[in-house]
Amino acid sequence: MALDEDQEFPTTAGILLGAGLGGFFDGIVLHQVLQWHHIATSAGYPADSLENLKLNTRLDGLFHVVTYALVALGLALLWRTARLRHRWWSSRLFVGTLLMGFGLFNLVEGVVDHQLLGLHHVNETAPREQWLWWDLGFLAWGAAMLAVGWALVRNGRRATKRPS
Questions:
Q1: What pTM was estimated for this model as a whole?
Q2: Tens of pLDDT along 150-164?
Q3: Any residues with CB less than 8 A from the CB of 143 and at least 6 apart, and which?
Q4: Cβ–Cβ under 8 Å, residues 29 and 45
Q5: CB of 36 closer than 8 Å to CB of 122
Q6: CA nearest to 30, candidates 118, 134, 129
Q7: 36, 39, 153, 64: which is closest to 103 by C-alpha?
Q8: Alpha helices in the chain (DSSP H)
Q9: What's the Cα-to-Cα distance from 29 to each of 23, 32, 70, rounded to whole Å?
Q10: Which of the 8 DSSP states describes residue 163?
Q11: Whose CA is closest to 142, among 14, 40, 11, 21?
């Protein structure tokens, strides 16, 4: 497939990369470094026994497999487009799509895993009555990244379409 001078920036690639990086941040920082939660710690498998910790560690690993696949797919799409002839792209497009993907990850993960399924909450080391506030902060952080990313993409598209 030959691309002409009007080739659009591979937005899907940036969003997939951002979602994968968002997942890695969640898994590495919140699950492993801070140990605030694991995948199923609020779903009846608190990390209070070796058996539950093993299950949560396996689920965390499967979660990382998915985030790794998102990053690999995003890189493949970006590489495919970058190898073809294209016009100059503003860096704001790349940073914006990364933020959009990261923000979308937070929003989907926060709504589905934290609220709908109740699998875990952002900071389960905090008192239980504070969990909702941590979850809402996580959602607000995701919404802010999505909004800033969207603004950067819009601005980056204008910059990309500059006369040559």
A1: 0.85
A2: 999 999 988 876 545
A3: 103, 107
A4: no
A5: yes
A6: 134
A7: 153
A8: 11-25, 50-83, 91-109, 131-160
A9: 10, 6, 18
A10: -
A11: 21
List pLDDT tens digits, range 41-94: 999 999 999 999 999 999 999 999 999 999 999 999 998 887 776 667 888 999
Residue 50's CB is within 10 A of a number of other CB atoms, namely 8
Rounded to whole angstroms, the Cα distance separating 84 from 127 reads: 53
Question: Which two structure tokens, joined as six digits, stand for 42?
Answer: 């609020």
Instruction: Retrieve residue 59's tokens.
Output: 């689920």
Residue written as token pair 């802010």? 144
Closest CA to 160 of 5, 34, 1: 5
Residue the block writes with tokens 């969003």: 15
- Whether 26 contacts 33, CB under 8 Å: no
Q: Name 132's Cβ contacts closer than 8 Å, sequence gap at least 6.
A: 121
Per residue, the 3-state secondary structure of 9-48, as one string, reads CCHHHHHHHHHHHHHHHHHHHHHHHCCCCCCCCCCCCCCC
Q: What is the dihedral of CA 90, 95, 97, 98, to 10 degrees?
A: 150
Spatial separation of the C-alpha atoms in residues 139 and 145, rounded to whole Å? 10
